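queue> pop job 88
queue> type: inverse folding (structure -> sequence)
queue> payload:
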């Protein structure tokens, strides 16, 4: 288990001065990720909030080797770099050991980047992919993605007299990645930082591809006060909306089972994107979202062998 006093002594590889929003869920995730990866690492990030806010020409907040890829292909880009690295190692032209990290938001991972991500995982590249999931295309104006929760008010699923927000269930990307039968898959939050860091260390040390899906609350998109980011991370786990678990070489393991499973509306409260759901005419959407959460939680308990415990 990582000790905070040891983590703070490690080199800071993500410099301050970037332009991510106050309260953004992403920066602390990648400060931890870069500590786990070490100084000899290559990072490729798809176009999105994290990339555009940390690499404003001619400046960069990244102290590692850094590549900006197109929206859809960070996994393909880093898999090519990893393949070139292995070739150089085989020919004796490079002896330094490097780690490789591809990054995308939910838009660049669940949707437009899914093909290149699936291909990289299937080919077995020795790389880590991190999705920072803020549940919409936040960089371009809060359009819905396939990660957007049911009932969310977005610019492409606006609420009004004819609509109660986004309809349909979210894509379960973490389970899709587990279905690729890669060495390590995990779901995490920034609030449970020790659990997250342990998963990051494991991901960077497995032989082959690894994938971590991390919830990343978004202040302007979710419409809440900046100091509540960790509050919403914690509630996402305690309501079982975002369970934290891992799949280690095919073995599913639940990392936290709340002592008291809170209703999902406790997580929704205070987020402006769900304000309309707390009216009598839209109450049915709260019930539908709760049913989705309950169903997925039961499925996860079954997979982890915790159904009757």
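queue> result:
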């Amino acid at each position: 288990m990582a000790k905070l006093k040891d983590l703070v002594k490690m080199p800071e590889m993500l410099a301050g001065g970037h332009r991510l929003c106050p309260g953004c869920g992403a920066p602390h995730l990648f400060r931890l990720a870069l500590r786990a990866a070490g100084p000899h690492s290559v990072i490729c990030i798809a176009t999105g909030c994290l990339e555009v806010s940390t690499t404003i020409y001619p400046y960069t907040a990244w102290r590692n080797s850094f590549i900006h890829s197109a929206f859809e292909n960070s996994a393909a880009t880093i898999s090519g770099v990893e393949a070139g690295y292995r070739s150089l190692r085989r020919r004796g032209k490079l002896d330094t050991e490097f780690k490789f990290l591809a990054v995308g938001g939910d838009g660049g991972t669940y949707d437009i980047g899914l093909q290149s991500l699936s291909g990289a995982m299937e080919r077995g590249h020795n790389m880590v992919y991190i999705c920072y999931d803020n549940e919409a295309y936040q960089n371009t104006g809060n359009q819905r993605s396939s990660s957007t929760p049911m009932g969310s008010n977005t610019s492409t699923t606006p609420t009004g007299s004819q609509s109660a927000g986004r309809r349909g269930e979210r894509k379960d990307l973490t389970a899709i990645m587990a279905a690729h039968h890669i060495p390590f898959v995990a779901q995490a939050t920034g609030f449970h930082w020790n659990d997250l860091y342990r998963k990051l260390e494991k991901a960077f040390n497995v032989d082959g591809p690894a994938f971590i899906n991390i919830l990343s609350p978004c202040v302007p998109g979710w419409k809440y006060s900046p100091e509540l980011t960790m509050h919403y991370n914690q509630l996402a786990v305690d309501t079982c909306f975002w369970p934290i678990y891992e799949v280690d070489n095919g073995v599913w393991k639940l990392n936290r089972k709340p002592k008291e499973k809170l209703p999902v509306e406790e997580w929704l409260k205070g987020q402006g994107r769900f304000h309309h759901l707390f009216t009598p005419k839209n109450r049915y959407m709260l019930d539908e979202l709760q049913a989705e959460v309950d169903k997925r939680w039961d499925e996860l308990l079954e997979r982890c062998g915790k159904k009757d415990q």
